[in-house]
Amino acid sequence: MTEQIGTVISTPDGPSASQFSFVIDEDSGDIPVRQNQFIMLGSEEGRLIARVSDIYKTNRYFDRAESVREYERKGKKLTEIFPAERWEYLVGEARPLGVYNDGQIRRATFPPSPGTEVKMIKEDILSDFLGLDNEDGLHIGTVGHHELPVKLSMTRLLQKHMSILALSGAGKSYLTSVMIEELLDRDEDSGQVGTVIIDTHGEYIGFGDDEKYRSRTRVVRGKDFKIGASNLTPSLFFNLKPNLSGAQRREIGRILREIKKDKSGETYSLSDIADYVAKDESIKSSTKEVLISEISQLERTGLFGVADNPPVEDLVSPGEAAIIDISDLTSLEERQMLVTYLARKLFFKRQNSEIPPFLFVLEEAHNFVPEGKKRRNALSRPVIQRIAREGRKFHSSLCLISQRPIKLDTTALSQCNTKIIMRITNPYDQDHIGKSSEGLTSDVLETISSLRVGEAFVVGEAVNYPLFAQIRERKSKENERGMPLEEAAKQYMDESEQREEDAESFM
Ligand SMILES: Nc1ncnc2c1ncn2[C@@H]1O[C@H](COP(=O)(O)OP(=O)(O)OP(=O)(O)O)[C@@H](O)[C@H]1O
Ligand SMILES: [Mg+2]
């Protein structure tokens, strides 16, 4: 027996195939229905499943402004004169999602009749209807107002790309940690991918200390990460130095090919490349000057060594995670260089099947694939866009995380076929997300601004219908993020004193 929770009523607009209202049974004392809950009912087409888009109260005693005012002017409340409280009803508004018969889902094309019983939905039906993977799915939380765990099918989630979007403090990184746990906890039979995380704030390094996860986690500090100069191909050089002229490109391209050939397998440094440029007699002196200065600019970043450290192929193993903590790289350009190199190499190696399928998690993605004015200067934008467009053919998935969706490249964002959206109040951001996602109805977009920390909407490829989820508690150690305000203030003072001292010693 399924519990009845209400009855479909007639209203000026319905019931129709796209929306209906129902009066909620309140006899049991508790309110059995909440916004965003799923419900089911019978219709001519079979079992109709709907989502509660809103709930409101009504009372016919208070329908007319003039009568309420007239009675109350006499100094008595309406509720003291009439049994008005008994006439208060709770009404749910719902949007039919689909018809579910014998495991088949079809679009709802016919309205339910007024008088139809509205029922609680059984969890197994809901799970099937939403397309969750009860056996092997990634368990990120529970469906809001239901007892059903949200277990997202890894294939559906990572076959294409995903994004996590919300304003600061809404719980994006917490959710990402929950996902990392799920990916690390998988066994071989259920399928494993390698995960590489660009950790901009050093928030994920706790995995490296956590007893349960440390054997499957590798933490690499940004300062220890090195790009092997011997791996500097012409195309990578052009990517890192996009403003070179045609002649400059031709010459450095030739030099890079020559040195590679001459050294036949041996490693070499950026200064070796600069020496080659300096000694080459056919390069015009003005070109030479520019190239040498560009190479020494690369050298000053401290990001280059003779060989890659760590070798990129060592970062990706099934069921393991590599956390690249770039919080110690302060310049955005250096961060972008690191991400560019790593992403290019991962994608290239994956295309050649040298590494297993992977998930590349990019925190602060709007800094690496920006939209708007900053797009031209973002070194990492071309490669992330390319993975966004072509990655799925090679099982290279992206997880783009951002607190400013509107600043995130539209092409990349629209390739994120699953979006997990948490609290967002900025209407421009909401609009941007709404435009790049199918199935996000206006009532869902409205709800997004009232979500609390740890509440999320999952929309897109990973689920059949948008669902509202409460993110589960994490199992791993939460790394103390950032520093307390007083400490940060003190550090700033110390640093500015230091700066002043430095400046004085110059004079
Ligand atoms: N599901 C959750 N359950 C319990 N606490 C949570 C949950 N999600 C987030 N929090 C807490 O809320 C705080 C902010 O979360 P988090 O750091 O994940 O936000 P964020 O969206 O990544 O913010 P930012 O954009 O600044 O990086 C953290 O202290 C975290 O512990
Ligand atoms: Mg965060």
CATH topology annotation of the largest domain:
Rossmann fold
CATH superfamily membership of the largest domain: P-loop containing nucleotide triphosphate hydrolases
Content-based structural category: alpha/beta
Biggest pleated-sheet summary: 11 strands, mixed
Q: What is the CATH domain class of the largest domain?
A: Alpha Beta
Helix count, DSSP H or I runs of 4 or more residues? 15
What is the second-level CATH architecture of the largest domain? 3-Layer(aba) Sandwich
Written description of the protein model:
This protein is of the alpha/beta class and 507 residues long. It has three domains: 4-121, no CATH class; 149-223 and 310-471, P-loop containing nucleotide triphosphate hydrolases (Rossmann fold), CATH 3.40.50.300; 228-304, no CATH class. It contains 15 helices and 20 strands. It has helices spanning 65-73, 78-81, 123-130, 154-158, 172-185, 234-240, 246-263, 270-279, 285-300, 332-351, 381-390, 410-414, 427-436, 442-448, 485-506, and strands spanning 4-9, 20-24, 38-43, 46-59, 88-101, 104-106, 117-120, 138-143, 149-152, 161-165, 194-199, 217-221, 227-228, 304-305, 321-325, 358-362, 396-402, 416-421, 455-460, 467-471. The strands form three sheets. The protein has an eleven-stranded mixed beta sheet. A six-stranded antiparallel beta barrel has the order 1-2-5-4-3-7. Strand 5 (88-101) and strand 6 form a beta hairpin. The radius of gyration is 29 Å and the shape is elongated. Bound molecules: adenosine-5'-triphosphate (ATP) and magnesium ion (MG). Adenosine-5'-triphosphate binds at residues 166, 168-174, 403, 453-454, 471, 473, 478, 481.
